[in-house]
Amino acid sequence: MGLFNDRLKNSDNRTQVPVWFMRQAGRYHQHYQNIKKDSDFMTMCKNPELAKKITHGPIDEFDFDAAILFSDLLFPLEHLSMGLNYLQGPPKLEFHLNSKEDLKKLKEKTPALEFYNFQKQACQLLRESLPQHKSLLGFVGAPFTLYTYAVEGSHSGNLVTAKKGLTDGLFNGFVEMLLPNLLDEMRVQALGGADAICLFDTAAGELSLHDYKKYVIPEIKKITKTFKSEFKDKKIIYYSKHTQIPFLHALEDENIDVLGIDWRVSLSQALKELSSNYMIQGNIDPVALHMSWEELEVRWLDVWREVQESGVSPDRWICGLGHGVLQHTPEINVKKSVEFIHNNFTY
Ligand code: CP3
Predict the structure, then answer these.
(1) Which of 86, 121, 173, 330 lies 20 to 30 A from 306 at CA?
(2) Quick one: pLDDT band at residue 110, thresholds 50, 70, 90?
(3) How confident is the model at residue 89 (pLDDT cuts 50, 70, 90)?
């Protein structure tokens, strides 16, 4: 595993800060586009050989320290019979959950352990082909984020139905069906050989602190507790977007190993206040990768200065972005960033 306590050393015997990016295998990358010419997104995720090949692209070319399984967050909605396609633009569902009545339409297609077998196979292929010193990351969507997609079809806008549904039983009904299946999705990836599972909670920061504490945290804790009781050696990385430090303090989950933070959160504050409980991952703005290398380099150096001035050991930090690599990001900036981090962020 390259992200945790077996980090690589460089030729001066200094430890390198490891780095990986969310969406490191994606549309900005020619390798991905070449595969996409002959295939659709769903097949790219569900064919284990293709998923393996796509996952490898940014590892082989840019030397990231962790590979993230190529898949998508929304498959649990397909598994619950909501229909899912990626044919034109953003993902689409056949129906949304507008009220508790709609929960009756949710049915498990096949047992989850069978449904997610494509992810297990892809992880197994990856574990065989990846160099031992690279971490393999699986991922699932966190309950509130998946719920938001199931209700609203995205996490933009005022989320009126989704937020109201927190209080009228819609959220509870949904997570009751979701949780056992989501845990199976995590089990499948862990059994396939993933070293860590990311829980992506992209929509969490749309909530007030009150609602985050009352509705989101208890569900996350159920998941992490069950998973860790079965897989003690596997790590859990929890990423949430738009969540401020008080949200992260409120989490207090001893079963989470790493907190991914977005670029709005002060990295030095997160390190100072939260790194005794969690490793911290992040957090430059992905838009910085669109800037000239000179500008981008300044931002990387700022991040490193923040880590050093925090007084916290870089052992507690994983370098990354505050969210995923954006479409049209110049590949050269991704390549140079990883090189720069490996050469300069050492301790
Ligand atoms: O490299 C990696 O990080 C692994 C692959 C990965 C994808 N999606 C591939 C993908 C991961 C980890 C995700 C997670 C994901 N998917 C999230 C959580 C993290 C985040 O970015 O917020 C969410 C909310 C989704 C749902 C989803 N899938 C959306 C909203 C979209 C369309 C919009 C967009 O930004 O791409 C997708 C499609 C998708 N997932 C693509 C990729 C490479 C693009 C497909 C294409 O058009 O080629």
Answers:
(1) 330
(2) very high
(3) confident
**Residues within 6 Å of ligand 1 by CB:** 22-27, 36, 41, 68, 70, 72-74, 86, 90-91, 139, 200, 202, 324
Model confidence pLDDT, tens digit, residues 22-45? 999 999 999 999 999 999 999 999
Give the distance (Å) from ligand 1 centre to CA of residue 305.
Answer: 31
- State percent of the chain over pLDDT 70: 100
CA of 90 to the centre of ligand 1 (A): 9
The whole-angstrom separation of Cα 84 and Cα 42 is 9
Question: For 39-56+68-282, CATH number?
Answer: 3.20.20.210
pTM: 0.97
Residue ranges covered by each domain of the chain = 39-56+68-282
Pairing of strands 84-85, 92-93: antiparallel
Q: How far is the CA of 112 from the centre of ligand 1 (A)?
A: 21
* Closest C-alpha residue for ligand 1 atom 25: 73
CA distance 71 to 42: 9
